[in-house]
Amino acid sequence: MTEIAIYGAGGFGREVNLIIQQLIKKGHPYHFLGFFDDEDKTLELGNSYLGNTEKLNNWKTPISIALGIGSGKIRKKIVERITNPQVDFSKVISPYAFFNDIISIGKGSIICAGANLTTNIVIGDFAVVNLNATIGHDTRLGDYSSVMPGANLAGNVNLKECAYVGSGASILNGIVMGENSVLGSGGVLIKNLEANRIAIGVPAKILEK
Ligand SMILES: CC(C)(COP(=O)(O)OP(=O)(O)OC[C@H]1O[C@@H](n2cnc3c(N)ncnc32)[C@H](O)[C@@H]1OP(=O)(O)O)[C@@H](O)C(=O)NCCC(=O)NCCS
Question: How would you class 201 by CB atoms within 10 Å of its CB: exposed for 0-12, middle for 13-18, buried for 19 or more?
């Protein structure tokens, strides 16, 4: 039996809990302990609130952590703060995702219901593929990258570390999104996007601030 908890008690954390509960119903050997969060959630969660990073870093027995946090940059910050050798990071794959053996998925990544991944896809550590996203052939999703609900990535797309694809956005074949870059919700990316840039619209253009 694996003792598992979620870091992040917000909306996405509760969605990750739903996946874990569905996996348990299907016989996956998880025992769900509750939620960690930076903020004290005792009032909302009672005994299911397990504490903050400090509490996790003092946890005395093996514990698996799933990250229930939508932003890759924040996932990265939290992972960097967790130093306890008792902690390992679960990859959590919805039983309702379309998924196969020729996809490699790194530790701590989350694949949500309805996500459809095809062939020769490599997903790094701590990535998120959210509800109903489609990921085409030969695509690379870097560490801490995020593909939000209903986004569509064609073949050979390459998301670098912490790249973020907003809900309902699309990316054409062979496009590279640089580190920390963001494609806004509903955007269609037809050219490579440099690191640390935000692009919006159809076709997507750089958002200058
Ligand atoms: C692109 C995005 C990151 C920009 O956020 P931001 O930096 O806070 O930008 P602002 O909200 O200040 O908007 C700046 C301008 O861009 C426009 N804009 C913002 N997001 C846009 C989008 N997705 N498509 C088109 N235009 C957009 C705004 O209307 C505003 O235009 P204006 O200056 O003419 O008024 C954000 O809007 C977005 O799309 N995030 C993804 C959300 C998502 O997918 N969430 C999934 C949750 S599960």
Answer: middle
pLDDT range class, residue 209, cuts 50, 70, 90: confident
Query: Quick check: 64 and 88 in contact, CB under 8 A?
Result: yes
Measure the CA–CA gap between 135 and 153, rounded to whole angstroms: 5
Per the structure, the count of domains in the chain is 2
> In this structure, are 170 and 127 located in the same domain?
yes
Task: Answer for the pair 109, 167: CB distance below 8 angstroms, yes or no.
Answer: no
Q: Which of 81, 91, 107, 137 is catalytic?
A: 137
Do 106 and 45 belong together in one domain?
no
pLDDT tens per residue across span 4-14: 999 999 999 99
Q: Which residues form the domain of 186?
A: 91-199
Instruction: Choose which residue among 15, 131, 185 to substitute to test ligand 1 binding: the one with the highest number of ligand atoms within 8 A of its C-beta.
Output: 185
Q: How far is the CA of 56 from the centre of ligand 1 (A)?
A: 34
Is 186 a pocket residue for ligand 1 (Cβ < 6 Å)? yes
Q: Is 182 in the pocket of ligand 1 (CB under 6 A)?
A: yes
Task: Verify whether residue 31 is a known catalytic residue.
Answer: no
* CATH code of the domain containing 50: 3.40.50.20
Length of the chain as a residue count = 209
Tens digits of per-residue pLDDT, 110-165? Answer: 999 999 999 999 999 999 999 999 999 999 999 999 999 999 999 999 999 999 99
- Final residue belonging to a domain, choices 63, 90, 117: 90
